[in-house]
Specification:
118 residues, mainly alpha, 3 helical TM bundles of succinate and fumarate reductases
Length: 118
C-alpha cells in the first residue's frame, strides 16, 4: 500500500475562485474607467477631481484596489509557499506582504475619501 504525503494548505478551489472574481472586478472597473475617459477625457487636475468626486466612482475605485490587493496576496502567498522552503523566512515574508497590503488598502481609502474633503 502506498501512503500519499499531502502537503500544503489546500486552498485550491477557494483561491481559484477568488482569483477569478477579483479579476472580473478589475476588468469591469478598467472597462468602466476606459469608457469614462473616452467619453470625457480629463485635461487638467480639476477634470480628474470631477471624475472621482462621485461617491460611486470612489467606491468602485476602492473595490478595484481591494480586489487588486487580494489578488496580489493570493499570488504572493502561492509564490512564497512554492519557492521559499524555510518556514521562518516564508512566514516573515508573508507577514510583510500582509502588512504592506493592509497599509496600501488604508492609504487608498484615505486618498479616495480625501478628495471628498478637498
Amino acid at each position: 500500500m502506498v501512503k500519499r504525503v499531502v502537503t500544503g494548505a489546500h486552498y485550491g478551489l477557494r483561491d481559484w475562485l477568488a482569483q477569478r472574481i477579483t479579476a472580473v472586478v478589475m476588468v469591469v472597473f478598467t472597462l468602466l474607467l476606459a469608457a469614462i475617459l473616452m467619453i470625457s477625457p480629463p485635461h487638467d487636475e480639476a477634470s480628474w477631481k470631477a471624475i472621482f468626486s462621485n461617491r460611486w466612482m470612489r467606491i468602485a475605485s476602492f473595490l478595484f484596489l481591494v480586489s487588486l490587493f487580494w489578488h496580489a496576496w493570493i499570488g504572493m502567498r502561492n509564490i512564497l509557499m512554492d519557492y521559499v522552503h524555510a518556514t521562518g523566512i516564508r512566514l516573515t515574508l508573508q507577514i510583510l506582504v500582509i502588512l504592506f497590503l493592509i497599509f496600501y488598502t488604508i492609504w487608498s481609502a484615505e486618498i479616495l475619501w480625501a478628495l471628498e474633503m478637498a
